[in-house]
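Incident log, structure service

09:12 report received: a user says their structure output differs between two submissions of the same chain.
09:20 pulled the input from the user's history:
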Amino acid sequence: MTTPLTPMDLALSLAEQAAADGEAPVGAVVVENGVVLAAERNRMKALGDPTAHAEMLAIRAALATRGSGRLDGCDLYVTLEPCAMCAGAIAHVRLRRLYFGAEDTKAGAVENGIRLFAQPSCHHAPEVVGGLGATRSATLLKDFFGALRRGEPR
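09:34 re-ran on a clean worker, output below:
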């Protein structure tokens, strides 16, 4: 009997697929009451769209699945701390909870950088759980960008 993937395991699997396709290894999954509404990975290169972050694509797909403009009651699992753009989208769709893997000390906007959800101008702040799958997430990122710096083909 096979154990079903957790949402973070699914996000990590998507991050691995992104890396295999030459995209930064980030995966994101939106869940409502234990049901996966959307699962995406970075597709910026593939779509020629700098906003095609895993979180943005997963949020858009979950909104379409749900047929509404909000994701209240839903949780987002993502392998990397969201940037300012993605954190803003998370606030706007009113996600209940954000789980993320690796911290992003350079471009993160949740526990690093601008800390969007802690700002008085932020109209909705989800519950945040950082560090879920952090080691595996960080390893994927370190390996991917290390290979790029060494000039290895992706």
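09:41 both user submissions now match this output. Likely a transient worker issue. Closing.
09:42 reviewer note: Residues 74 and 100 are 14 Å apart (CA to CA). The chain has five helices and five strands.
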